Amino acid sequence: MNSQVIFSSISVNLNSIPILNGTNFKEWKENILITLGCMDLDLALRVEQHASLTDGSTQDEKKYYEKWDRSNRSSLMIIKCGILESFRGAVSDEVTNAKDFLSEIGMLLKDFTSKTYSGKGNIREYIMEMSYNVSRLKTLKIEISEDVLVHIVLNSLPIAFDPFKVRYNCQKEKWSLNELISYCVQEEERMKQNKTESAHLASTSKDKSKKRKRTPIKNEAAKDPVQKKHKEGETTCFFCKKSRHMKKDCTKYHA
């Protein structure tokens, strides 16, 4: 196979790897493993490094060691090639093993990108924790730009923040991390205030409903001041309904 065909094959394989942007780690890792496997470069990811060669090492051991070393170096280069520029940086001198590098970046990014804000607690502290995780990634010399961090934080907010995220996406200006914290705190306070007011209105409406149900219906007869209970033993005319005389003595009856 000539060098042109080999280069073309490598190019096709590398183009199948999506760029790691901080939110697609699972997809990115799967494509990295598939690509390295198809290129027969995944030995360093499947098998632990053997002991260093010695003067007594056999030819087979030397060939295997060289194959593993090539796999390890190639894997590191391809992994780095598939990282967004804002993440990109020289591989840490302390991490020269491709498998270890993939494991460490996976652990940090998975924890970083899978975090979501529950809506309970303090959003300022939540964002500061996300910022701290970014500083942890710097141990691998992987830089995450502030724009990417803002994007990841916004994506991690719950549905209640959707209108807030829409407003951000509709504007041209980008927020700094401090601006994001300030606006998120204001938005959370606004939502808490609205929730308190809604709960108060619901409670007030419920109380009024209970009072209406408990109010007794008054006797219509009791509302008429003319109708009074007659005193016991008092004579009443059955014709004019007035007291202190009888029907036979009623002037209106005899009129």
UniProtKB/TrEMBL annotation:
Domain CCHC-type: 236-252
Sample GO molecular function, one term: zinc ion binding
Top-level lineage group: Eukaryota
Stretch list, region Disordered: 194-232
A Pfam entry, by short name: Retrotran_gag_2
Biased composition annotated in UniProt, kind: Basic and acidic residues: 220-232
Entry-linked PANTHER family: OS04G0629600 PROTEIN, TRANSMEMBRANE PROTEIN
Name of protein: CCHC-type domain-containing protein
Species: Cuscuta europaea
Lineage: Eukaryota, Viridiplantae, Streptophyta, Embryophyta, Tracheophyta
